[in-house]
# Entry
Amino acid sequence: MASPEVALTLLSGSVGHQVVIVGPSLGTRVERLWSMAAGLLSGYRVIGWDLPGHGRSAPVTQSFTTKELADAVLRAVDTVVGADTPLRYAGDSFGGCVGLQLVLDHPDRVAAAAILCSGAKIATAEVWRERVDLVRRKGLAPVQQASAERWFGDRVKARPTDESRAVVDELADVDAASYCAACEALGEFDVRDRLSGIQVPLLAVAGSDDLVTTPEQNRELAGQTPGARFEVLPGVGHLAPLEDPAATVALLEQHFGKESSG
# Structure
């Protein structure tokens, strides 16, 4: 395995503001997923990272683990903001998995974390193997076609937006080999037995309509993590920052505000 490299994008704020790192869902560009929410998150320097082969990040030719990806994110961030800067972190789906990995492996670097529409384990290894096999045989077209149904809650399904259409369209631009490598990393990811050791303030947010990482799964994640909070966003599916940026930001501001002295 070779450690992946990730590219960062400044989404809002400037030097001198407290730093929030935001992470993407599989198949999405962080700029598309998080830009609206970042614009509402005042008083913070919001920096997003892209998965390998997505958005600004270069493709990979070898497999990687979620731990290696989390380490790569932290390396990239430290290069920009410095290794002594306290970080707040918010990640959706795979981005949430990376957040859990960061608070487990680097608790000294993360002041608070929000895990959105994610889990300590997402689906089964068999599900991810089947996804990889599908993409290797037919490309990303079948995944793209299913995404509108899998990603969005009732609100967006009833009234699609320019942003919801664009995030699906952009899946066609993802590097297929890198997408498969990310699926393999998710298939191996499982930190359920480590949640009790998390000491960083944690917020678990679920979409009420999320069929991928259900409210019940997120409630269980919070219940197994000391001091964690659990919240549900009504009418939201799997992409909370894009589907309801205002409600997402309200939860983040409340959570990160408790750590504002850092």
Remarks:
- The chain has a mean pLDDT of 96.
